[in-house]
């Protein structure tokens, strides 16, 4: 049995959701739930992650499909007043990068990348790892391919997978990762609200991961960290932390919002409750398989 009128209305409501979610500020994130009810849910993100409290788990590694294949187009950075973001185009093979494996039951295709940062007096990562809040957190957002769009995917518990990378500032100018430095070099061009800037260079999505050990990560079920805070996210947070030069970090601090002010786009940590955080350690996999070094 079908309900064409209801279905049409539902699709229109989904179409409007992204626009509604754009209207929020970081002034009082604890009040987001008054406008976006899901922000008051029981499986919210970010959370505090502790290695001793995480559950070591024997699972396959994640497959980062086409991550290291060059993208077919240059990246276009956009300052939307809440973050600096960019959509990920298809690779030169014609398909988009994707992830699968680990605890994921489906294939998740990449959609976009964005950043969270602090200020000269505050740290900028959203997740807290082993008591440390780091300087930057990068989110690589993926959509479950069984759903046609992010707007629809976020209505389902298995709709979205986000790969998170944490960055720590170092007192060095000699920190170079090809993909990341391409992004850093264009940040000054999106200093003001609603500006865009083309990176002018082709990169691969994998170049944003630097030399991270992709097989060592934490994973748990949570939510988007911005409104509408949909509880639809499988989080994957790498154990490794990448360095960022003290010369590059202030470029994030200088980004301006719609009011022309600098801002910190970090949501406070949320109550973890009875949720489990799983930790995949490569060493455990070796022991399990009976390998010896």
Task: Give an overview in words.
- By secondary structure, this protein is of the alpha+beta class.
- 16% of the residues lie in helices and 28% in strands.
- The strands form two sheets. Strands 2, 3, 4, 5, 6, 7, 10, 11, 12, 13, 14 and 15 form a twelve-stranded mixed beta sheet that branches.
**Structural class, from secondary structure content?**
alpha+beta
Question: How would you spell out the order of helices and strands?
Answer: HHEEEEEEEEEEHEHEEEHEH
Kindly report how far apart the N and C termini lie: 60 Å
Mean pLDDT across residues: 91
How large is the share of residues in beta strands?
Answer: 25-35%
State the share of residues found in helices, binned by percent.
10-25%
Shape: globular
Q: Output the radius of gyration.
A: 19 Å
Main β-sheet description: 12 strands, mixed
Unreliable runs:
1-20, 285-293
Total DSSP helices: 6
DSSP strand count: 15
What's the structural blueprint in terms of helices and strands?
Elements: H1 4-21, H2 32-35, E1 48-49, E2 55-56, E3 62-65, E4 76-79, E5 84-87, E6 98-101, E7 104-117, E8 128-129, E9 132-133, E10 136-144, H3 150-153, E11 160-170, H4 178-184, E12 196-198, E13 217-222, E14 233-245, H5 249-253, E15 278-280, H6 282-289
Parallel strand pairs: 1-8, 2-15, 11-14
Antiparallel strand pairs: 3-6, 4-5, 4-12, 5-7, 6-7, 7-10, 8-9, 10-11, 13-14, 13-15
């Amino acid at each position: 049995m079908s309900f064409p009128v209801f279905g049409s209305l539902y699709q229109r409501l989904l179409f409007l959701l992204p626009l509604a979610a754009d209207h929020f500020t970081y002034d009082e994130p604890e009040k987001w739930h008054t406008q976006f009810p899901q922000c008051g849910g029981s499986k919210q993100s970010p959370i505090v992650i502790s290695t001793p409290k995480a559950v070591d788990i024997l699972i396959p590694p994640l497959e980062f499909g086409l991550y290291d294949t060059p993208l077919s187009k240059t990246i276009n950075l956009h300052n939307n007043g809440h973050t600096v973001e960019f959509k990920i185009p298809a690779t030169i093979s014609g398909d988009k990068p994707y992830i699968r494996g680990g605890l994921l039951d489906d294939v998740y295709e990449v959609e976009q990348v964005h950043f969270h940062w602090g200020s000269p007096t505050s740290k900028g990562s959203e997740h807290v790892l082993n008591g440390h809040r780091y300087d930057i957190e990068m989110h690589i957002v993926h959509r479950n391919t069984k759903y046609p769009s992010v707007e629809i995917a976020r209505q389902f518990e298995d709709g979205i997978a986000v790969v998170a990378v944490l960055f720590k500032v170092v007192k060095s100018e000699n920190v170079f990762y090809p993909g990341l430095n391409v992004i850093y070099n264009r940040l000054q061009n999106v200093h003001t609200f609603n500006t865009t800037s083309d990176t002018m260079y082709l990169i691969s999505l994998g170049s944003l991961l630097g030399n991270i050990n992709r097989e060592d990560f934490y994973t748990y079920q949570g939510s988007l960290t911005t409104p509408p805070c949909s509880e639809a996210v499988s989080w994957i947070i790498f154990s490794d932390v990448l360095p960022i030069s003290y010369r590059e970090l202030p470029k994030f601090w200088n980004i301006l919002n719609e009011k022309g002010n600098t801002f910190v786009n970090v949501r406070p940590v949320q109550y973890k409750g009875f949720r489990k955080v799983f930790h995949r350690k490569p060493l455990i996999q070796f022991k399990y398989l009976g390998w010896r070094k």
